[in-house]
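Quick one, T. Sequence first:
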Amino acid sequence: MAVTSNTLIGKTRGSIGGVTFSSWKGLNVAKSKPTSVANPRTPGQVTNRLILAFTVALFRQAPSIFNVGFIQQAIVQSAFNAFVAANILNGAIIGDATEAEFDPQNFEPAKGTMAQTPITGGIADFSLKSVTLTFATTPLGDQTALDIPIAIVTTHAGLVLGFTRSTAGRAEGEIDIATPGMPSVGTMVHAYLFFYNAGTRKVSNSIRLGTAVVA
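Structure tokens:
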């Protein structure tokens, strides 16, 4: 880096040839451009890039849901960054040297401090193209009757089939998720349930139910 004071140049920004000009603390600064840019492709770096790309693609399928699911984590970072940080470690694995694969057991569509609500039952119905989850209605711990149930359904490969945010609170005791792309009978799908309180902005960790599609 060089500091320039050439009166012909004056206060300059931008690049000329292999030199980039900028201003730093009122001074003209000239920096040479690198002659080459390193792009290491070690096995570890390739793996990390594959998992990162896969995790970002997961988020883009249902950003409105994941933004709520990680709203409690969005303090010094965005909900998107919190989602990626959690699921780059848990939501994907490397199946072979060329692609990342979904890890349904460890995928986290939501992460927070509210007490969890167990799923008491669930069914994936091919004829109705929907998944129905049931849960307890009595609030426990820091839960309230106003907590909103939110659910998302994915295939075993991580394709989001549907998601919904109920307006009935806990009192309904169940939530239905429309899944127009429901796979064939006998296929495994994964349903995730979590709760959100708009007043306290608290979120519960998600709970998963893996279930086979029925006729």
